[in-house]
Specification:
With 472 residues, the protein is of the alpha/beta class. The protein has 17 helices and 16 strands. A seven-stranded mixed beta sheet has the order 11-10-14-13-12-15-16, covered by helices on one side. Helix 1 crosses helix 7, helix 3 packs parallel to helix 5 and helix 5 runs parallel beside helix 7. The longest helix is centred in the first third of the chain and has 19 residues.
Length: 472
């Protein structure tokens, strides 16, 4: 359970990156012979709502196991790396130097690589330059004390919680620390306690909203704040819409698509003391409900576009744009997520390289029987040389040399790309099974998402599309 808590802290962190004239940095180094030759990719989450992964910096570990680089920061940030089965993380502060101790390498099994729901093991990285007052050390020590408290009060759902005992345990855990000073660590503790109250006692979310969020600054950079925020305001539109006053939001969204009307209904009836909190809650709901069936997608998108245009909060405009990009990225008529991947010869291939052509993009693995069977069909399609069509396969197979031999043995001569330069591509394209196909037009916009497979007669579909567009 604790592993999941650690991972979720990372997944909901830091929806902030407010406008700064220039970034700050921290120095990261280490010695990890087990990772010799491995490229370390340091990541951040751009915001807690879309959970987009952003690359902060890359560094290849040298033959002796050494690495040394600078990380650009906008403040104190949760930074993570995908290392086999691990999501290894630490908190980076501007101006600090970190001597990271990486875990022993444990590669994913073939089954884990093929599982789109695989959850990595959270691993808070150790520091070679240990300092008892350093933020990571303080957070690790706090978590070591907090986790048994979590297990004591949360894990047994069949036992009625003792609220007085919970408050007493929280007071005891907090007793070694000075009064909350508004620091990153102070807020980390505060909102972890709030999460414990929510999960252990099922305290009403409105009371937690009042206590921890209304009238409080929005902590765009603190993962504990973000985790509690996401749980407190989960399905908020649905619950609010069940009240007599809240029913109006269905007309605000579905009928009018009006941000002004929605904000007015939302703020007036929920008594938020400022529009900043109301607006970030609305942003979360617009994102979450787009994947539900209670609200018109067109209405939600109209509200979102209006919010992006009208908000006076720069950070909310950026988050809104990221939400829009995410929810439309795999819809027909919209541009799919861009990528830069290496082919089996080490050449960098970009999605934009194929503008002006029809692109049959597929995600496969040589460990899938269905993929292997459809490779033969793809080969026949490729040999027929359909006019203006490019076949592009993204494979998750870990060994590029084995893939080269496989292609040569079977005479597959269309382009194969390796996903590991941009592993987040699997999530960006929502790959949940292999193979998965997309058909992209010469204008770079999706025609079919997902597209028919070769076994489902993609060739007939392609001719139909080309004919309708005047390309035949």
């Amino acid at each position: 359970m604790i592993r999941t808590v650690y991972i979720f802290l990372g997944m909901v962190v830091a929806f902030w990156h407010t406008s700064h004239a220039e970034s700050l940095t921290s120095r990261v180094s280490g010695n990890a012979p087990g990772y010799s030759g491995t490229e370390l990719v340091f990541m951040r989450y751009s915001n807690m709502i879309t959970m987009n992964e952003e690359v902060m910096a890359r560094e290849r570990v040298d033959e002796n196991g050494h690495f040394d680089l600078e990380l650009p920061l906008w403040g104190t940030e949760y930074v993570f790396l995908h290392l086999g089965i691990y999501q290894a993380y630490f908190f980076a502060e501007p101006g600090m130097s970190y001597e990271l101790v990486l875990p022993e390498p444990v590669a994913k099994t073939a089954r884990e690589m093929l599982n789109p729901y695989f959850e990595p093991v959270g691993q808070h990285l150790g520091l070679g330059n240990f300092n008892k007052d350093e933020l990571n050390v303080r957070i690790m020590r706090f978590d070591d004390a907090y986790n048994p408290l979590y297990n004591k009060h949360v894990t047994d759902i069949y036992v009625r919680p003792d609220i007085s005992l919970l408050e007493k345990d929280i007071q005891q855990l907090e007793s070694p620390y000075p009064p909350d000073d508004g620091s990153f660590f102070g807020n980390y503790r505060k909102y972890r306690y709030g999460l414990l109250k929510l999960l252990a006692s099922q305290e009403r979310v409105q009371s937690l909203s009042d206590e921890y969020f209304d009238g409080m600054p929005v902590l765009y950079d603190n993962p504990a704040y973000a985790e509690l925020f996401n749980k407190v305001y989960d399905k908020y539109f649905i619950f609010f819409g069940r009240t007599e006053q809240g029913k109006k939001i269905y007309n605000d969204i579905n009928l009018h698509g009006s941000y002004d009307s929605l904000l007015n209904t939302f703020s007036r009836n929920l008594n938020f003391s400022n529009d900043t909190l109301a607006e970030i809650v609305i942003l979360k709901q617009l994102h979450d409900e787009y994947y539900g069936d209670q609200f018109s997608r067109k209405g939600l998108l109209n509200v979102l576009d209006s919010l992006i245009k009208r908000t006076t909060i720069v950070e909310h405009r950026r988050i809104g744009q990221e939400i829009r990009n995410k929810i439309t990225r795999l819809q027909t008529g919209f541009e799919p997520p861009p990528f830069e991947l290496e082919d089996t010869e080490g050449n960098v291939v970009r999605l934009s390289d194929f503008l002006g052509k029809y692109l049959y993009l597929n995600f496969c693995t040589c460990q899938s029987y269905t993929c292997l069977n459809e490779f033969n069909m793809l080969s026949q399609l490729h040999k027929r040389g359909v006019n203006n069509l490019v076949i592009l396969t993204v494979t998750i197979d870990p060994n590029d040399e084995d893939l080269k031999q496989f292609r040569a043995r079977n005479h597959y001569d269309w382009v194969f790309l390796l996903y590991d330069r941009q592993p987040e591509i699997l999530r960006e394209y929502d790959i949940r099974a292999f193979p998965t196909y997309f058909l992209i037009g010469p204008d770079g916009r999706l025609i079919d998402s997902p597209a028919p497979s070769p076994a489902e007669n993609i060739e007939n579909r392609l001719f139909e599309v080309m004919r309708s567009r005047g390309d035949l």
